[in-house]
Amino acid sequence: MKRNSRLSAVLHALLHMAERDRPMTSEELAACLHTNPVVVRRTMAGLREAGLVTSGRGHGGGWTLARTLEDVTMRDIYAALGEPMLFQMGNVSESPGCLVEQAVNHALDDAFRDAEAMLIARLGEVTLAMLAEDFKRRFAEHRAALKQLG
Question: Is residue 113 part of a domain?
Answer without folding.
Answer: yes
